[in-house]
Amino acid sequence: MSEITIVATLTIKADFQAPLMDALKKLVDSSRAEEGCLQYDLHQDNKNPLVYVFIERWASQEILDIHSKSSHFVSFGQFTKGKIESLTINLMSKVY
């Protein structure tokens, strides 16, 4: 099995920062509890507080696929509809 790293950048709409912060924290806590989650950290941009960056590490692609179907992840996706300006997801594999 090969470890997968994700760097996801999320820009939220200003009107939704407070309610999304609670949802972001719940997503992080629930994801960290999943089997095969090696790291799940949330960062906020120092210059633009509407930009958040997730840095995630998963034990394998199979584990990541299970996470993507988890109830907390699906619920988060539904909750954020219309509240996000942009989302960029980069999947990476460690080379060194």
TrEMBL record:
Pfam families: ABM
InterPro entries for this protein: ABM_dom, AI-2_Isomerase_LsrG
Highest taxon of the lineage: Bacteria
Domain ABM intervals: 4-96
One MF term in the entry's GO annotations: monooxygenase activity
Record flagged with keyword ATP-binding: no
Keywords: Monooxygenase, Oxidoreductase
Name the record gives this protein: Antibiotic biosynthesis monooxygenase
Species of the source: Limnobaculum allomyrinae
